[in-house]
Each structure stands twice: as structure tokens, then as C-alpha cells.
């Protein structure tokens, strides 16, 4: 176990508290292993009827994976792969699968920053998951910002969002709040931040089996018309329904609205290659189940580190902080179908895939 993952049981509810506040609870391999061990132990524990995951800080549930570790490990052995880096993604994706199919109510307090890997541990399965947001929630799959792609199951939960909303979120890496998260299907209920102490008291005093219904009754209704994604839905579906990233940008160029022009400016900052890979991944993910999506992502992440785009993105935004990534290739018109296809070529034969047993 790790000091950054605290666990206890209250009234037949297993409570997990992430406690790495200085890093906004960014996931390390030790944290992934602690979460997995805890959830596996509680899965068959007759004394636990539900699980709640939250944070010791209102700033974040989890800001993602530890990208400084990604950069250090990936840069050391870019072609062969770092064993620790390989273990991290294999075990993280297996954890995402465990959470998605968890047989007991899995309740995530998505207060503060919930991005990337944080989304992977918040997006419980649709049958018994409950995702709670507040006015402080900042939700995103921002991997294209650093030359990666929206992983941790993003190829499934983004591709199954209504219309082209998932394509918009994945290709832009845009950050959304509570109303948009509920509208797009990435959260379930809203609780004001001022009511979180009362919610925690409710969790402590309500039997685990009754917890989801009790939380839904406790939650506040969200005001109608509060979602910008809902307001922009027609434009998003129209522009992001185009059959390539280049066509999406061409469509946006014809739209003088502030939303379209802001979106276009965002896309011009992203990795042309990884935007194209992300779009292709979402197209493929729409036809796949959760396990196959995670297996696809596991191959993609190996390819991305081999290519080096993510190493350059992390260098520019996190290490050197010059905010001037040198993308390869630098322009969208230089991205070929063959370049994108290479990312989806099998890395391992099926029988040797690290996630073959999902």
C-alpha cells in the first residue's frame, strides 16, 4: 500500500481517499497498485456493499497520471520501453476495467480537477456507478495537449457520448464544468461544494446498499440552460461530424461564431498527428467493448512513446515550460493515412497482449 491512498470502512461502505495534494493526486504506479489491491479485496468482501472514492483536497480528485515520471522513463528507453512505464499503463488500464465492471456501487466525488487518469478512476460502469460533480469540477481528457491521446478508456466513454460531443472533447482536450459533464454523460448528479460535508456525513450514516439512492435524493437539481455544450450542440455535431481533422478545421473556418473560432484556435495548438490518431481511435472505439478499447489504447500508448510525440509535448508544457512544442510532423497537411495507421498496427500477437485476460 501507499501513504497516498487511504482506506477505511464506514457503515458497510469502503471509503478511498486519495492523499497526494501537492501533485493534485496524480497517479503513481504505487497508487495504481494500492487502488487495485483495495478494490479486489473489497469486491468479494461480504461486509462491504458500496465504494466511495474521493480526495483529501478540494482542488482535485485526480489530475491524471504522473507525467513527469512518463517523461523521465520514456526518454530513458524510447524504443524498448521502460519496464516501469510498461507496468504503469498495463496496470492502470486493468484498474480502469476493474472499476468499469465493479459489481458494487462505485461512487466518485469528482470535486476539483478530474482529468485524464482521474477520469479513468471516476468513470464507473453504467449499472452501478455514480459520479458526483460540484461547481469546482474541472473535467477533461486533455491528452492531445501533451502529444498523447485520451486513454484510460476514453476511446469507449468519449466515443459513446451523444452526437459528436466526445469527438469534440477528445480532439480539442477542452475542459468542462459540472453542467456540461452531466449533459454529455460523464457525470450523474450535482452537489454544491458547500454541501460536501453534509454529503460525507450522509455517506458515513447510510448503509452502503442504500447509498446511491440516498445520494440522488440529496443532490441538487442543475439549472436548465447551464450547459454550453448543449447550447453549442448543433455546431459541434456539424463541424465534428466531418470525416477527418482537416475537414473539421475547414468546417470551423466557415463559421464566424466565437465558439467556432475559439475551437479552431485551440486545434491549431495541438499535435496534428495525435489529433488525427485520436479521431481514428474514437471512430474505432464506437464499435468496441470496454476491454477491446483498453487493449487498443495499450498498443497505442506504446506506439506514442516510440514515436516520441508525447515526450516532446511533456517537455514543452511541463519540463521546460516554453509552451512551444515541436510537433512531428508540424502541420496537419503533412499527416498521412499511413502515419496514423502505424499507431494501430498490432504491437503484440493477441495471445501475448498484456491485457489479453480482461
Automatic annotation (TrEMBL):
InterPro entries: ClpP/crotonase-like_dom_sf, ECH_dom, HIBYL-CoA-H. One of its GO terms (molecular function) is isomerase activity. Signal peptide: none annotated. GO terms for biological process: L-valine catabolic process. CDD domains: crotonase-like. Coiled coil: none annotated. It comes from Massilia cellulosiltytica. It comes from the Bacteria. Keywords: Hydrolase, Isomerase. It holds the Pfam family ECH_2. The keyword Nucleotidyltransferase does not apply. The keyword Amino-acid biosynthesis does not apply. Residues 14-344 form the Enoyl-CoA hydratase/isomerase domain. This is Enoyl-CoA hydratase/isomerase family protein.
